[in-house]
Each structure stands twice: as structure tokens, then as C-alpha cells.
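Re: beta-D-glucopyranose structure - here you go.
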Amino acid sequence: MPLIIEKSLAGQRALVTGSSSGIGAAIAVALAEAGARVAINYMSDAEGAGEIVDQIQALGGEAIAVQADVSQEDQVIAMFQQVIGTWGSLDILVNNAGIQLDAPFVEMTLKQWETVMAVNLTGQFLCAREAVKEFLRRGVVPELSCSAGKIICNSSVHDIIPWAGHVNYSASKGGLLMFMKSLAQEVAHDKIRVNAVSPGAIKTPINRSAWETPEAEADLLKLIPYERVGESADIARAVVWLASDASDYVVGTTLYIDGGMTLYPGFREGG
Ligand code: BGC
């Protein structure tokens, strides 16, 4: 059963960073189901990226795998040259790549701090900059979309929920919230739409320990009013909508997709 039925992205070209696994992989497949050609960016998991390319081709879609570390300017520039060189232009960037390197605050190394900032924040900056350059060069192509390009930033509920033991991660996501809004404000005039999705607890390798055992899952569910742990498909569906003209008037917004995690569930009985 396909996730997406309507071909709302027919003819468009998308790049999804960090899409060899997890939420990024689901987003890539869903964009392809909606008719887009999709570039699968990966840093080291060439095999995973190849599997997602195969999956998209099996659905009758078009995909390529592109290697780049999003925190490295030269690699990002080369990746965009490769994608734009292959398909002529780009219509959708999903800034998805992100990592967690957790530690109690006083044990957190400068390397852990800098690496998380480099991937989660600088990586989104570098990729968005290349995408905006291309969107400005090409402008609106009415047959494809009523906007000149769409950027969707994958953030986290921790762009507003503080997270002890994860100070580098939550700081990067908090920074991303204002990055997204400031960029959206700057480029809306050029008909470029920038928005974000902020997932809550989604079953992926990044948070395996939080849902892997029944005890851990029961603990996690206390934080989720809707009483289920999320699936990557929950995020992928929303990203397709944000990339399509169905959301044309949505500019600079964050969609929290979290089963209600941001509703302060502790206050259901307390307060
Ligand atoms: C983190 C996950 C965590 C979720 C909810 C995400 O941004 O990457 O590890 O389970 O937020 O706390």
C-alpha cells in the first residue's frame, strides 16, 4: 500500500540529506511516490542509500545516491553540482541530516559539541544556501509549482522542549528554529518557501534505546498523549504536503508531529 497516492510533485526534483536510513529514507520514498525524482544523500552508508534508490526504482520512480558530508562546504557544493547537473535543476531540498552525540553536561567534549553543531546547524545552512542560489537562478516554473523552490528543515520537538543530557542537540535544534524562520522571512519575496517539521519520538536507529524494550517504550509513552510512538511515515506524509502546492501559503512555520509531546503531558493531572 503506497503512502502517497496523489502525484502532487510530478516533474519536480528533490534532494534529501541523510536519507540512507530512518526518517530521511521514508521522506525520500514518499517524495518519489508523489512523483518527484529524488537524490539520496548519505555520508558513509552507501549500501543503505543504494537500497533506497532500488526501492524507489522498484516503484517506477527515479533516484540517484550522492555522497557528501553536509558539514563540509566543498562536499556540499559538489553534491549540488552533481544533482543539478543530472536533472537540470532542483525544486525541493529536505534538510534532514542530523545526529545526536549525548553526554552529561560536564562530560561533554568540545568535539561532541562542535560535531553536532556542524551537522545539525551548519549542514542545514550550507545546503540551504546552495538550494536558494539555484531557486533564484531559475525562478518560478508555473508548470511545476507556484513557488520557485521549497526547503523543509527537519528539526525536533527539542527546538522548544529543553533536554537534559543532550545540551548540544537541543541547542542545535533551537538554533535551527530561528535559522528556518529568518531564512523564510528573507526569501519569501523570491517565492521560496521555507518551513520545518519537528518530529517527536519516532522509531528510528537514533533513539532505539528509548523504544526497544517494553519497559523503555512504556516510559516513553508517558510523554506522548496520543499513546503511540511515531513512525517515519508520519513525518514523510507531512513533508510531501509541505513540498507541494497544497501548502502554498505556509511560510516559515514549524509543524510539530509528535503525538502531542509538546503539550506538556505532565500537566494532564498536575499543575
Ligand atoms: C530525538 C530522539 C527523541 C525525540 C523525542 C528527537 O529529536 O532525536 O532521540 O526520542 O526527539 O524526545
